[in-house]
Amino acid sequence: MLYSKRLTKKRRTLRVVIISLVVLAAGTFMPFVFSYLGAIAMAPVHAVHTWLSESSSLVPTFFRDRQSLLSDMEELEHQLAIETRTSATNRHLIEENERLRALLGSDGTARIEAAVIGRPGTLPYDYLQIDRGTNHGIEVGAPVFIGRDVVIGLVAFTVAEYSFVQLVTTPDFEATTFISGPNIVATMEGVGGGVARVRVPQGIPLSVGNLVYLPSVEPGIFGRVSYVENEPTQPEQYGYLTFDTALSGIHKLTVGKLSQISRSAEEIDEYIKDELKKTLLITGVTGDLTATTTNSTASTTTNNNLNASSSRNLLLTPESWSL
Amino acid sequence: MVFVKSVLLYFFILLSFVQQFWWLGVIGLCIFSWFYGAGWLIFGAFLLDAYFGNFYAVPFYSIITIVWFLLFAYLRPRLMEDR
Fold first, then answer.
1. Residues of chain A with pLDDT under 50
2. How does A143-182 read in b/e, with b if 16+ C-beta sit within 10 Å?
3. ipTM score here?
4. pTM higher than 0.95 for the full model?
5. Which of A18, A214, A240, B61 could bond to B48 as cystine, CB 3.0-4.6 Å?
6. CA distance A212 to A196
7. Whether A249 contacts A149, CB under 8 Å
């Protein structure tokens, strides 16, 4: 009895499977008929699906908002994870930068904090007036920073209690810049109205967001390229730079020392040559001592006890001469 | 009452797959298979394949459901014996 029941069940299963395979084969041969029939049979499901997806009723809206918020949360968490990692990388780079500066003997020049008491509107554009002057150690030509290392200009005039800062965006102001990204050196010129521009030849991949450094100022970041003007028919392209902070939003800044303006390449070369010349002149060495040393070198060479390099050492190293 | 419940559950399964709530669909499918048998689910799979136009490519809903039907026909008596 049980056996026959199982047999019946098996037969029924087999029958269902065979019918299903036949329908499947028919569907594969006549997909358009099945799609048409499917669309009719699924009409109620499709109606509910449309209601849930598009209706502005309370329940569908609730579900849609929830899903949207969940996906937003996921995306924000992802961004936060990236930001955390970037922040850690930045910290690491700042620490490494400071360590390298210390190795190079940078003294971490103290800056003078100043408040802006006059700005464009009351002054000609591209000038700022600050509340610190010669009494506080401000020097003409000293670089002026916003934040840690963004250079915005140079002190152009100073008296006892206040100074004027000429911004790098002043017309006719020129400086050599290094553009990170395409990694090229270009001349930056002030255009006025808080805008400067760099001009580079066509073909250089200049793009919005490239960081622009002023290598002659220590440490010297100027800002980012905020617009690129590129006419393919022109021999040059222009990158326009503006301050990250609006001039009207600057109320505190710091003034560096004149020593933070680097010397020119020629001056640095000359300085290095002078220093090298000084090392070649050895004081306290007499002609007799040199002659003795030469004799001793000659005798030792005869005895085959010293090679040529050690004789050079003897000639050049004061400690060796005492031997 | 059983008929109404089965129809509602069937509708819920179809809607879940149309809405791409896969987990809800699979849970509903298991419950339906247990209480009402897996045979009718093959018909639902045909409808889903027809609705999504899968007969123009691979009607995977139907194929998976036929396999599920065979698997369930094999497993169900054994699970019942254990109970």
1. 289-323
2. bbbbeeebbbbbbbebeeebbbbbbbbbeebebebbbebe
3. 0.84
4. no
5. B61
6. 11
7. no
- Res A8: pLDDT: 79
Place of tokens 């805008």: A195
State pLDDT tens for residues B24-39.
999 998 999 888 888 8
**Bridge partner residues of A143 (DSSP):** A154
- Residue pair A132/A138 in contact (Cβ under 8 Å)? The answer is yes
Residues of chain A positioned with their CB less than 8 A from the CB of B63: 24
Distance of residue A42 Cα from the nearest chain B Cα, in angstroms: 7
Residues A269-288: tens digit of each pLDDT = 665 566 556 566 666 665 55
- B50 to chain A: which residues are within 8 Å by CB? 27, 34-35, 37-39, 41-42
Its CATH class, for the domain covering A112-266, is mainly beta
Tokens of A220: 């010297």
Q: Are the C-beta atoms of residues A157 and A173 closer than 8 Å to each other?
A: no
